Amino acid sequence: MESSRSNLSDVLLRVRERFARLPAATPGHLTVAYSGGLDSTVLLHLLARLAPEAGFVLSAIHVHHGLSAHADAWAAHCAQICAALGVPLQVCRVAVKREGHGLEAAARTARHAVLAQTTADWIVLAQHADDQAETLLHRLLRGCGVAGAAAMRERDAERRLWRPLLAETRQTLQAWAQAEGLRWVEDDSNTDERLTRNFLRHQILAPLKTRFPSAPANLLRATRHFAEAEDLLQELAAEDAARVRFGEAGARSRLRALSAPRARNLLRYWIAQSGAQAPDAARLDELLQAVRGEGAVRWVHAGHAFCAWREMLWCEAAEAPQPEAQVWRGEAALPWGAGELLFTPSTARGALRLDPAADVLQIKARSGSVSMRLEEGRPTRLFKQLCQESGIPAAWRAQLPLLWRGEEVLWIGGVGGAASARAAEGETGWRIAWRGPDGVTR
Question: What HAMAP family would the database entry show (predicted)?
Fold first, then answer.
C-alpha cells in the first residue's frame, strides 16, 4: 500500500509539472471530458486535488452517446462522483450519425462537436500511453505520413486540448485508482473486437507487451520523434511559403524550383493554412502535377479551390456566392460575391468621371457582347481580350464586376476604366478597386 501511495504522489507531481508547462496565460477554467471510465476518473480526481493549490476552476462534461443500454446509468454515476468532489458536471446527449463512417469515428465526431462548444480555457482529455500506442498503430496501418505518426500531442492550443496523462501507462492509472479506492464504470463495448481500437488493444498490443513490456513507452517515444520531425517540416514549409508568396506574381515558377518532396510539403502546408484537411497522397500528387504545369488549374478540395493561372497561385472558396446586380450611389464600399468593391475620390491619373447623384450607375456581371477602350488612341478590345491581357483567370470572368451607365461599360474589375470616362487632369474623379476571390485587391 505504501508503494501505491508513492505512485500516487509521483503521478500527481508529474501532472502538476505538466500543468506548470502550459502556455504562459495560465488557464482559469479546465473542464474534464468525463466518461466515468477508469482513465477519466483518475484524471478528474487528480485535477480535483490539484485545483485548490493551482488556482484553476474545474468542471466536467459527460457526453451521453445513447449507444449502450447502460448509458443512463453511466451518466448518473458521473453525476454522483462529481457531486462528491464538488465539481460541476454538464451532461450532453448526442445523436451519433454514422453517415458512412464507422461507429467509433461517428461517436468521436459527435463527442468532439460537443467539447468544441465549451467555453473552458482547456478541455482536458484522459488519453494515456497505451492509447497513444493504439493511435500510432492504427494510423501506420492506414499509411499515414509524419504528421499522422506524430499521433496525439499533449497540448493542442488551437482546439484547447490538454492530455496530461499521455506519458502514463494504463497500468499506472489502474494502480493509482485502486490505491485510492476509486469507483468507475466499465464500457461493455471495450471487449467488442469488431471495433478497430479494441482489436489492436487485445490482439496486437496485449501480446506485444508480453514480449516487449516497454512497448507503450517506446511507441510513445516514437510519436515524439515523429512530432519533432513534423514540427521541422512545418518550419521548412513556412520558410518556403514566404519565398513562394502565394497570391503574388511569379509564385508558380518559385514553386516549380522546389524539389518534389519539398513542394508536396509546401502544398500540404498551404492547404492546412487555408483551413482544409490534408488530402491523401494520390490527390496531393494530382495537385502538384497540375500546379507545376502550364495550364489553368482549379483543384477543388474540402470546400476550397486551389488555383493556378499563368504565374499566380491562390486559394478561393469552391462555391462563391453569386453576385447580384446593384446600383452604386456613392458608397465607399459594396459587396461583390466573395469580395468587395472600393470607391475612393481621387485626382490621380486614371480616375473616372462619375456622378452617382445624377446618373444611374449599376454594378453587374457581363451581359452579352462587351468591349471597351482603355486609352485614347488605342483600339477597342473585346471583353475576352481585355481579361487575357490583364491576367484575369477564365474561371472568374462570368462573375467579374462591371460598372455600367445604361448600355455603356465604364469600368471592368481587374482591367480598368474606359478612356471615355476619364477625369480631366486635376479634376476630382473616382478610383475603383476590386478585391477578388483570391483576396488580392486590384
Answer: tRNA_Ile_lys_synt (MF_01161)
* pLDDT, tens only, 50-64: 999 999 999 999 999
The grid cell for 276 is: 482544409
Residue 62, all three cell numbers: 459527460
- Classified as helix, coil or strand, 89 is strand
Domains of the chain by start residue, with CATH: 2-222 (3.40.50.620), 245-317 (no CATH), 326-435 (no CATH)
Which residue positions form the known binding site for ATP?
A: 35-40
Burial track 232-245 (b if 16+ CB lie within 10 A, e otherwise): ebeeebeebbeebe
Buried b / exposed e over 41-69, threshold 16 CB at 10 Å, is bbbbbbbbbbbeebebebbbbbbbbebee
Binding residues: 35-40
pLDDT tens-digit series, residues 383-437: 999 999 998 998 899 889 999 999 999 999 999 999 999 999 889 999 999 998 8
